[in-house]
């Protein structure tokens, strides 16, 4: 993973780091989702578990709610139907387009935030947060669900899974490659 652009302004560096982290988690999820068949999007390991489709559906609802009018309205929109996000859809066909659109809402916010905005106040369910705290809260939330998506995708793909990081038994080869690149 590359470091975000450096800055002499700590707030600018924090904002760049947060933006980089969100984009990294989306990329990780995208790479896992791309390996799944339509049936695997809908599969659940047990009756109490969420499918990948439900996790994506929930993240879409959360992204839309939290980041639409981010600086000017509560992050829990009155139109959000959170409980419905956890109902299994009949098909996952519409979810990839919704996923992309929802993440774009976040990326548009991040692209327009200024370092000075980090200490502004925003609300989530009526609770005051600094912009920084609200962003950190969402990074943690999305990391949690992306991990679930990756784990389910890995389980469903089995031997066909294409690793998203360093393959087992390849750490030394990878580290040697990274050292060689650093020395050039």
From TrEMBL:
Gene3D superfamilies named among the record's database cross-references: dinb family like domain (1.20.120.450)
A Pfam short name: DUF1572
Protein name, UniProt field: DUF1572 domain-containing protein
Species the sequence originates in: Hymenobacter metallilatus
Highest classification ranks of the organism: Bacteria, Pseudomonadati, Bacteroidota, Cytophagia, Cytophagales
